[in-house]
Amino acid sequence: MSDEAPGIDPTSSVPKHLQLKDLLGRMIADGLQPGSPIPSERDLAEQYGLSRMTVRQAINALVADGRLERRLGRGTYVAQPKMDVQIRLVGFTEDMRRRGMTASSRTLSFERIHASSALAAHLEVESGEPVVRLVRLRYADGIPMAIERTHLPERLVPGLVEAGAPESLYRYLAEEYGIVLTWGEQSIEAATTAAEDAPLLGIRSDGVVLVMARRSFAEDVQVEYATSAYRADRYQLWVPLAQAARPIVRNP
Amino acid sequence: MSDEAPGIDPTSSVPKHLQLKDLLGRMIADGLQPGSPIPSERDLAEQYGLSRMTVRQAINALVADGRLERRLGRGTYVAQPKMDVQIRLVGFTEDMRRRGMTASSRTLSFERIHASSALAAHLEVESGEPVVRLVRLRYADGIPMAIERTHLPERLVPGLVEAGAPESLYRYLAEEYGIVLTWGEQSIEAATTAAEDAPLLGIRSDGVVLVMARRSFAEDVQVEYATSAYRADRYQLWVPLAQAARPIVRNP
DNA sequence: TCATGTCACCGGACTAGACCACCGCCCCCA
DNA sequence: TGGGGGCGGTGGTCTAGTCCGGTGACATGA
Asked: What are phi and psi for residue B230, nearest 5 degrees?
């Protein structure tokens, strides 16, 4: 509470443009309304004792993140909060929270298995390598929503099986193992329910589900291979679309 | 063929950093293998008579596009071609091309209708306003893949109905009307086939389909509302996942 | 009253340097 | 022969300017 006007620490090893980006990011999150202007580049440069190029670097990063908006000849403004420009690597709990529903889950099994050749290929491990397998029935607002089968190489999460199934896997990975997922890929398709899943999900045995397979990575290391079956009558995905890349033309 | 070493035109109204970005982008597309280095920032600056900051601006843009990769202390390298970081706003034809299949299509109907209240809401037009409706059966490698129902406000595409159904709608919009789609949003869900669609798609009447609804925009103007039903046995979506945004924390 | 032109201020572009940390290689010394 | 240190090149950061074109408010004049 002493530093009521936090500034840039020129002695810090953190680059100034990142310090300023953080500072502005906090200003935006804390107080500024969407549409309201931030100080001009020249003002910020003077106020924090930086050159204008450095200020621009910080602002550019926030513009790239979609949090600010430049208007030529006018100023820089706090952007309207928009939908994520990309599907995020979030777990079920967070996904449901964003949809305004309450997530809960029932663990159906939690065990150490040995990777089949198919699983080994999906998880980038050796065939036969120990793998932690977690099968959960996922509820949203108390009603079955999905069945999720998660697989993790055991060498990345020693002791996990013994510790029992965590409430939020992603959070547990971060807190206990320091594993923060940084990117992933996911396939999406439609299918009819597997016979054994139907009663768990509370749908007919030929009910329709949205099947997703996810591979998640922390930097270059694959951490997770998960398949999920979501009840088609309760779940819908929403994705933003970016402009198509301009085809490469020789003589434009 | 005269300008064998195209350079930067300092008199052009196109900013130099964009000219250089284009130049480098073409170099990457034309010849350089993934993993091979591009000239150093200092070399490029000298070669094209630019300051290093300008060169960095061009390179930064390509890095943001995922086409280059910086390695500290070593250099800048052509990135491994990766999947699009985002689902692109491409039509069926382009989508199939990317999947290595040949697209064709049969027009089932192409007419002027008046917007129902539901359609009006989806298309951001007035209820009753004239709308062009195009229903097509889409084939990939000659086999039915999807049924697509596209709606466009007629005021944006006068004369389209009279001209007949174009081969590639998106290209036709760009060439004839100067309408270039810049962004969109799409919902995805699983469902069973509508009874009338099943025989067209060549699947059972209770067959499973992936249903997508797309709204496409050119800048701020909505241009298209399209619903599609894809055969679940032939179509799979693939999406990349970005790292979850750090939740906003007041006192980190 | 209303149109027009001026002007201050904004972001956009660009320069020509500076110093730093990092990386890989090569040479020299143990 | 093997290990370590030095060195040159690289990207990362940062400065202190300049000039340009777009914007909007305000003053001025018809």
From this structure: -105, 140
In chain B (252 residues long), the average pLDDT of successive 10-residue segments reads: 65 92 91 92 95 96 89 92 65 85 93 96 94 96 96 94 88 88 89 94 93 89 94 89 51 28
Query: Cα separation of B78 and B91, whole Å?
Result: 28
Average pLDDT over residues A189-210: 94
Tell how far CA B15 is from the center of its chain: 25
A73-105 in b/e form (b: 16+ CB < 10 A) is eeebbbbeeeeebbbebbbbbbbbeeeeeebbb
* pLDDT of amino acid A249: 31
Q: Which of A115, A48, A122, A45 is nearest to A76 (CA)?
A: A45
Contacts (Cβ under 8 Å, ≥6 apart) of A217? A181, A182, A183, A184, A223
Residues of B in contact with A206 (CB under 8 A): 206
Order of all β-strands in the sheet with B130-140: B88-89, A237-243, B183-192, B208-218, B221-231, B143-153, B130-140, B103-114
Q: Angle of helix A52-64 relative to helix A41-48, nearest 10 degrees? A: 120
Smallest CA-to-CA distance from A103 within A19, A169, A172 is with A169
- Please report, as a single letter, which amino acid is at residue A222: Q
Q: Which bases of chain D are under 7 A from a protein CB atom?
A: 9-18, 21-24
Closest CA to A166 of A222, A218, A110: A110
Q: Write down which residues 39-58 in A have CB closer than 7 A to strand D.
A: 49-54, 57
Strand (E) positions, B81-178? 88-89, 103-114, 130-140, 143-153
Q: Quickly give A53 CA vs C5 C1' distance in Å.
A: 33
What is A200-229 written as a DSSP string? HHTS-TT-EEEEEEEEEEETTEEEEEEEEE
Q: Please name which of B153, B167, B146, B130 lies closest in space to residue B215, comparing C-alpha atoms.
A: B153
Number of A/B CB contacts below 8 angstroms equals 147
- Model pTM score: 0.73
Indicate the burial class of A238 (C-beta count within 10 angstroms; 0-12, 13-18, 19 or more): middle
Nucleic acid strand D within 7 Å of B105 CB: no
The radius of gyration computed from the CA coordinates of chain B, to the nearest angstrom, equals 23
DSSP A122-185: HHTS-TT-EEEEEEEEEEETTEEEEEEEEEEEGGGSTTHHHH---SSHHHHHHHHH-----EEE
* Dist CA B150 CA B11 (whole Å): 45
